[in-house]
Amino acid sequence: MLIRCYKRFLGDVRLLDGEVITVHTSNPGSMPGCVEPGSRVWIRDSGNAACRYLWSWEISKTTDGVMVGINTLLSNHLVREVIESGVIAGLGGYDIIRGEAGYGNEHSRINPLLEKSQDRSDTVN
Q: Is the domain of 35 the same as that of 81?
């Protein structure tokens, strides 16, 4: 259960056994509706004792009962996994997957950018 959210990246959470821990979120937004005290939250142990905050805030349940992904980096990993595993046939055949890549004349960013390697066998030297 969420106790409070502060400094945009941190939250205090009460575990089922009553212990209170501080969790980190990669989401720098204000997250209206996702940071209400008493909200149910899902957290993940990073498994890395070197991390300043061992726990990561992954999902929050709003007062309307909607589950919201809080870890904005998770979607990037999930999309890459889906592409690499071939689950969506239309996204198959790409051997280069770049995240947060610069794209176009406007210097926009695209995530993910899918590319195919050039076949160099027909290149004349």
A: no
Find the mean pLDDT for residues 74-95: 87
DSSP element (H, E) containing 22: strand 20-24
Q: What is the pLDDT of residue 12?
A: 96
Residue span of the structural domain in which 57 resides: 2-69
The DSSP bridge partners found for residue 12 are 4, 22
Could you tell me how far CA 120 lies from the centroid of its own chain?
Answer: 36
Asked if 8 and 61 sit in the same domain, the reply is yes
Tell me what pLDDT residue 122 has. Answer: 43
**φ and ψ at residue 57, rounded to 5 degrees:** -85, 120
Same domain (yes/no): 52, 92: no
Model pLDDT, residue 28? 66
